[in-house]
Amino acid sequence: MANQFTGEVQITLDGQPHVAKLTLGALAELETELGAESLVELIERFEAGRFGSRDVIAILVAGLRGGGWAGGRDDLLTVDIDGGPAAGARSAAQLLSRAFQVVA
Predict the structure, then answer these.
(1) Cα separation of 86 and 89, whole Å?
(2) How many whole angstroms separate alpha carbon 45 and alpha carbon 66?
(3) % helix / strand / coil in the chain, to the nearest 5?
(4) Which has the closest alpha carbon to 21: 35, 39, 36, 3?
(5) Does the pTM of the predicted model rise above 0.85?
(6) In the beta sheet, which residues pair with residue 18?
(7) What number of CA atoms fall less than 13 Å from residue 6's CA on the CB side?
(8) Distance between CA 69 and CA 18 in Å, rounded?
(9) pLDDT 10s digits, 48-99
(10) N or C: more exposed end of the chain, with fewer CB within 10 A?
(11) φ and ψ at 85, to 5 degrees?
């Protein structure tokens, strides 16, 4: 089970639950892969609804890797995400949000 207070999100792939988390290394990889000038730019894309499926996939792969998943982009393209594309986009948004959540 994912711990939202540590930035984790649960994503179910092919019926198997996985914990995803955006680590600092994953965030740096995301900036490069998506051509974002900054993480703020990436977050603004989601807040404004200007994200694409490429953004969602990149965030999910980075988060899943941060949670210990050994797969990659091509692997994610061939699995069933529980809840479909909308759930995938929601999980990507949660990953970004939780990566910068301040817990007192």
Answers:
(1) 5
(2) 22
(3) 55, 10, 35
(4) 3
(5) yes
(6) 11
(7) 11
(8) 8
(9) 888 889 999 999 999 999 999 999 999 999 999 999 999 999 999 999 888 8
(10) C
(11) -60, -40
